[in-house]
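Write out the bound-state structure for flavin-adenine dinucleotide.
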Amino acid sequence: MANILILGGGFGGVIAAETLAKELGHEHQITLVSRSPKFIFYPELVRLAFGKCEPEDISFDLREAMLDRRVRFIQAEVARIKPESRRVILPHGEVDGELPYDYLILALGRRLATERVTGFFEHSHHLLTVEGALKFGHALRNFHEGRAVIGQCPGARLPVPVYETAFALARLFAPGGLGERVRITIVSPDPPGLQFDDLNMARALRTALDEHYIEYLPDFPIDTVTSEAVSTSNGHVINYSLLMLLPPFRGPGAVTGLGITDNEGYVNVHRTMRVQGVERMYAVGDCVNFSGPKLGHMAAHQAKVAAANVALEIKGLEPLQFYDHEIMLTIDEGGQESIYLHKGLWDDEPAIVRQGRFWTWAKRVHEKYWLAKHS
Ligand SMILES: Cc1cc2nc3c(=O)[nH]c(=O)nc-3n(C[C@H](O)[C@H](O)[C@H](O)COP(=O)(O)OP(=O)(O)OC[C@H]3O[C@@H](n4cnc5c(N)ncnc54)[C@H](O)[C@@H]3O)c2cc1C
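---
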């Protein structure tokens, strides 16, 4: 019997556990370890901040969901991994001490490196946890005039909630408020021009932003936040009345010092999702070193590839499933300017860009289906 340990209860960990349970049946032990007993559907956090749903609508209990799939769930913090003895150190939680494994799947997401932007922790709202979204929602309700600055710090790699927040804010104040009482500015560290590296996508976004009188300020790599302004290292400053920023991301703390990460702490993997230079260890989701934005659908796809390859290895075969890196996302504008993008990141094929109200509906339906299927 093989003992498979999955670390992290987000999109990557849940899909890996579910796929392995289906592939392997009862014969093997599958264990999911995560610090929180809940799965959070992050793409809904913008709607949570704007009061369109409640925390219980966008989460489910991991232990119950895993029990249904005959996967053991342990709520615990992962402190360190010892690949040489195939053990994971859990300093506190339901199990203290060392947990052995035969195969390991890392799905620990990314760390919020707020310390890289002076004043971020004290002054900025973010949308990366339920608590953060609720706090931002409270600030939104008290915001009646002035400049709202919404954006990404260098290294944030998550543009979707930035645009969705700006569009939702614009809808809140239209018609009448925008331009008169309220000004909305998106700041981005990227150079001007090609958002998502695609001309059609950049054009679609530009039209949608113009439609809502949203300013777009590229080349604005924020390094300091005060109680009234954000500034960059090259001396640009803008004042704000409401601020929501995504902080820099880095790889998860539990894998540092193992020699398996790049210089931002992301785990180096092959296209099979196997960790480079280590046997029987795979990694999926936001914690891996692939280029481009970090998205839930990528985590899910990578988890399926990793799970299939672990199952092959257990059967004594070579891992032969390969991941193909692509972006598939919808930016929900709330109406006919919603944008769908599908683009390969490892090929030269042109991107598919579609626009219309249908994509708002499709995103909502997909989210409801996902939560119902897995909870
Ligand atoms: C506001 C917002 C909107 C988004 N919108 C979209 C969208 O529209 N489309 C899209 O595709 N993606 C979207 N994303 C991105 C998507 O949510 C992430 O890419 C996805 O969650 C990554 O999944 P993951 O499993 O790799 O990591 P995570 O979901 O971050 O899961 C990591 C898990 O590991 C656990 N963990 C971490 N460290 C430890 C430790 N030391 N010990 C124990 N447990 C630990 C965490 O508690 C968590 O359960 C959005 C994200 C946010 C925040």
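---
The longest strand covers residues 146-152.
The two ends are 28 Å apart (CA to CA).
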